[in-house]
Structure formats: C-alpha cells, structure tokens
C-alpha cells in the first residue's frame, strides 16, 4: 500500500454554526470524502480550526444545553451549562461535539488528536 502525504485542512469558524462545521470536519477526518475511503483505516489528515471562540449556536442551545458528568460516586452527578464551558474553553466544547460524532472504535482518540485549534 502506498502511503500518501499528510493533508492539512484549514477552517475558519467565524459565524459558522457548531453542528454544520463539526459534521464537515468529521467527514474529512474519517475520510468519507475521499475515493480511497476504507472504513477500517482512516486517512492521514489534519484539521486546523481558527476563530473557534466566534462560533454560532442555533436556537437557545447556548443558554439551555447542559453537559453531565458522573464521578462514579453516589450522588455525584456534575452538570455544567454550555455557556459556562464555552466561555472557559471553546476548544474543549468543540472536542466534545466531535467526540460524540466520530465512530465509537479504536480510531476515535487518534482522530481527535489530529484536530488543532489555532
């Protein structure tokens, strides 16, 4: 098998909606837009996203969406609003979205490492 050179894609997130941008990034990361797509072998691609803090959210998601995390102890369900998380670290929120959209297999963490925020 011939190894192709690493492709680097750059996106500007300014005034783009979170869902539309993330679906296009996942499609590129997995390699579904390529003629040499194989579902068991992702292509060597890297995605750079700039202006991540200027993303748009549709509807009332920004103020109403809640992320849950359970620590493993009884009664320790932690909840945090999207607004608070996005103000702290917009890149981490975007990684959570991408993580949920990527296939749930051994490639998911490797593909997430290929996403860079400039």
Automatic annotation (TrEMBL):
<dbReference type="InterPro" id="IPR036899">
    <property type="entry name" value="Ribosomal_uL13_sf"/>
</dbReference>
<dbReference type="GO" id="GO:0003729">
    <property type="term" value="F:mRNA binding"/>
</dbReference>
<comment type="similarity">
    <text>Belongs to the universal ribosomal protein uL13 family.</text>
</comment>
<dbReference type="GO" id="GO:0005840">
    <property type="term" value="C:ribosome"/>
</dbReference>
<dbReference type="InterPro" id="IPR005823">
    <property type="entry name" value="Ribosomal_uL13_bac-type"/>
</dbReference>
<keyword id="KW-0689">Ribosomal protein</keyword>
<dbReference type="InterPro" id="IPR005822">
    <property type="entry name" value="Ribosomal_uL13"/>
</dbReference>
<dbReference type="GO" id="GO:0006412">
    <property type="term" value="P:translation"/>
</dbReference>
<dbReference type="GO" id="GO:0017148">
    <property type="term" value="P:negative regulation of translation"/>
</dbReference>
<dbReference type="Pfam" id="PF00572">
    <property type="entry name" value="Ribosomal_L13"/>
</dbReference>
<dbReference type="GO" id="GO:1990904">
    <property type="term" value="C:ribonucleoprotein complex"/>
</dbReference>
<protein>
    <recommendedName>
        <fullName>50S ribosomal protein L13</fullName>
    </recommendedName>
</protein>
<keyword id="KW-0687">Ribonucleoprotein</keyword>
<dbReference type="GO" id="GO:0003735">
    <property type="term" value="F:structural constituent of ribosome"/>
</dbReference>
